[in-house]
Amino acid sequence: MKFYNLLIKYRLQIGIVLILGGGLTNYFSGFWPAFPLYLVGLVLVLGHFFFGPLRLIQEYLESGDIEGAEKVLATIKFPNLLYKPIRSVYFTLKGNLAMMKQDFDGAEKMMKKGLDLGMPMKEAEGASMLQMGMIFMQKNDMKQAESYIRGAIRKGLPDKENEAAAYLQMCSLMMNKREFRAAKDFFRKAKRLNPTTEQIVDQIKQIEKYITRMPG
Description:
Elements: H1 2-29, H2 31-51, H3 57-62, H4 66-74, H5 84-100, H6 104-117, H7 122-138, H8 142-155, H9 160-176, H10 180-192, H11 198-211
Helix pairs in contact: 1-2, 4-5, 5-6, 6-7, 7-8, 8-9, 9-10
């Protein structure tokens, strides 16, 4: 795994060195002895531009190293050359990192680009739509927030934690609209999932204190 990560990190440089080595071999020994160097070098260079180093970001995100993740993304100089599904993931990651830094305008712009390109899986699209809904909630645009979160629930979400988060956001939106019956229904759905994420569990506890006193 470490070797593969190193290969991804340096494949552009390795590819260029192999192509140059192929040129020297071609000069001294002819084309066919140089052909394997040309081929492998070209595959590595094209892989750098078409697939990028997105695999390397995972370890940074898991450790909460936003700066490290941003440095990896910054090595992608020509994102429009990325294979379309990977380009979608690239813009989604850019949006997530912007959201972590509370740059909601930047996050909205990047997430929309990712969604417009289409996600490789419906669950990934649902998670991106949920993120968009949360961005609009932060911007106090509740109409757009509701539209995106409902869309996320329809598309499907990758796990019960995301599902619970979506239902709790809908519960909050319904309470703001004074649609208390709908708010209670979304709250029950969230609680039924038994989420374990600390932030979601705390949110359930806070809402539970007063939701039973609501009419409806």
